[in-house]
């Protein structure tokens, strides 16, 4: 009986060896350094802007309300703002801070904020605001404002004759 058992065990030896090699191979392949856990930290975002008046007078300030909406949540994301004015003249500022300089990069402390644009010219004005994050994603918002011209009519003796002088 022992002889039969030893013969049966010897017949299974190649199967045991093959099973050990297969287990070792699967273990080594599954522990490869090439398959690292990927953590996504680059989330795109959208920018929502409340409606802005199209007309502005020289010296008038317009409020621009902006909200950054993330598609994912990564706690170390920082947002930045820069702007470029290509028509007219004016200043852009964040709340009561000093006016921004064109093409300089400014950090945004919150994802919901207000900018204030003050017109300093008597012609139409156009400018772009660029909002970017710390991963290189960037959104452009374009603004175009038309200057309102106030017309003051002067009453003069000529006005009685139907002439109107503009100041």
UniProtKB/TrEMBL annotation:
The lineage of its organism: Bacteria, Pseudomonadati, Bacteroidota, Sphingobacteriia, Sphingobacteriales. Pfam families: TraQ_transposon. It comes from the Bacteria. This is Uncharacterized protein DUF3872. InterPro entries: TraQ_bacteroidetes, TraQ_sf.
């Amino acid at each position: 009986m022992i002889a039969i058992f030893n013969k049966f065990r010897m017949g299974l030896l190649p199967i045991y060896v093959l099973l050990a090699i297969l287990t070792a191979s699967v273990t080594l392949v599954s522990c490869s350094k090439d398959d690292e856990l990927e953590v996504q930290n680059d989330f795109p975002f959208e920018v929502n802007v409340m409606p802005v008046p199209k007309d502005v007078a020289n010296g008038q300030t317009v409020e621009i309300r902006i909200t950054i909406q993330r598609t994912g949540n990564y706690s170390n994301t920082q947002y930045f703002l820069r702007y470029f004015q290509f028509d007219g003249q004016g200043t852009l500022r964040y709340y009561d801070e000093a006016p921004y300089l064109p093409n300089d990069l400014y950090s945004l402390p919150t994802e919901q904020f207000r900018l204030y644009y003050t017109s300093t010219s008597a012609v139409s004005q156009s400018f772009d605001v660029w909002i970017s994050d710390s991963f290189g994603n960037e959104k452009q918002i374009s603004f175009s404002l038309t200057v309102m011209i106030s017309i003051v009519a002067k009453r003069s003796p000529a006005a009685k004759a139907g002439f109107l002088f503009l100041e």
